[in-house]
């Protein structure tokens, strides 16, 4: 199955990304939840940043719908030089499983952010949904096993009716994206080799939202898509609230490959 995934078209991008192999470390020594890492290196100020901020202004003005904005961001990410453009930062993040901010605005209420995400072999980013947020990810190096789901309806405070939209392995140069109404839940991991992703996200402050706007912070919310409960063709997926079962949930999903779980 495939969702809104973009295929690579530039051979030079993939060749540039091969530099990643020079910095591999032993994934077995890396365990535990992914942490937010603060770079010692100065924030990224390359040409990609200005392109992304211009797109955010077009979204705010109504020139772009959230789905169009996410697609345009995906195109801009693929215009980068891959690992070579972020080499000073990615060398720093290669010490631990982490999400590290290349850039984040402290004054803009949309909180546009550009991140590097390093996932060691054998670890996964647990399945989660987002509220009032759009996020786009580009695989810079390694391979990523990805599953995406649409939120179809809210059953109650702790359960969502969801549907699988994509289950596949992505290579360098491929990208995936989500909005409040498209592929909002994603789950991805590095099963066969260490992987590095470039992530861009932005809070959606206007327009419709799946849950009432203002009902919670624009953020990540963990979802269990492996539930066997069904309603018609929908998976009735439990939502993890706060610290409730959080440790057990992360232990289950972060330290096991996606292929261990049937769809």
CATH topology grouping: Jelly Rolls
Strand-pairing-aware structural class: alpha+beta
In CATH terms, the superfamily is Jelly Rolls
Shape: globular
Mean model confidence by pLDDT: 82
Description:
With 263 residues, the chain is of the alpha+beta class. It has a single domain, classed as Jelly Rolls. The chain is 19% helix and 33% strand. The strands form 2 sheets. A 7-stranded mixed β-sheet has the order 1-9-6-11-4-3-2. Strands 12-5-10-7-8-14-13 form a 7-stranded antiparallel β-sheet. The chain is globular, with a radius of gyration of 18 Å. About 10% of the residues have low confidence.
Which features does this protein show?
alpha+beta, Jelly Rolls, 5 helices
Structure at a glance:
Helix content is 19%, strand content 33%. The chain is α+β, with helices and mostly antiparallel strands and 263 residues long. It has one domain: Jelly Rolls, CATH 2.60.120.10.
List the helices and strands and how they pair.
Blueprint: E1 5-6, H1 11-17, E2 35-37, H2 47-60, H3 66-77, H4 87-93, E3 98-104, E4 113-119, E5 124-130, E6 133-141, E7 144-156, E8 159-170, E9 175-178, E10 185-189, E11 195-203, E12 220-222, E13 230-231, E14 234-238, H5 246-254
Parallel strand pairs: 2-3
Antiparallel strand pairs: 1-9, 3-4, 4-11, 5-10, 5-12, 6-9, 6-11, 7-8, 7-10, 8-14, 13-14
């Amino acid at each position: 199955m495939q969702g809104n995934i973009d295929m690579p078209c530039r051979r030079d991008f993939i060749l540039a990304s091969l530099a990643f192999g020079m910095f591999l470390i032993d994934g077995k020594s890396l365990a535990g939840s992914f942490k937010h890492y603060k770079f010692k290196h100065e924030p990224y100020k390359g040409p990609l940043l200005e392109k992304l901020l211009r797109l955010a202004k077009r979204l705010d003005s109504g020139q772009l719908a959230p789905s169009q904005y996410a697609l345009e961001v995906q195109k801009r990410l693929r215009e980068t030089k891959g690992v070579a453009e972020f080499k000073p930062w990615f060398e720093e993040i290669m010490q631990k499983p982490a999400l590290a901010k290349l850039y984040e605005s402290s004054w803009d209420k949309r909180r546009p952010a550009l991140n590097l995400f390093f996932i060691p072999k054998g670890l996964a980013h647990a399945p989660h949904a987002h509220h009032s947020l759009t996020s786009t990810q580009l695989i810079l190096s390694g391979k990523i096993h990805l599953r995406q789901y649409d939120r179809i309806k809210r059953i109650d405070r702790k359960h969502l009716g969801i549907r699988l939209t994509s289950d596949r392995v992505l290579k360098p140069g491929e990208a995936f994206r989500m909005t409040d109404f498209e592929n909002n839940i994603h789950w991805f991991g590095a099963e066969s080799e260490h992987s590095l992703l470039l992530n861009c996200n932005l809070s959606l402050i206007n327009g419709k939202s799946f849950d009432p706007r203002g009902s919670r912070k624009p953020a990540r919310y963990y979802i269990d898509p492996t539930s066997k409960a069904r309603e018609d063709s929908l998976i009735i997926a439990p939502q993890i609230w706060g610290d409730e079962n959080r440790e057990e949930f992360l232990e289950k999903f972060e330290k096991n490959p996606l292929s261990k779980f049937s769809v």
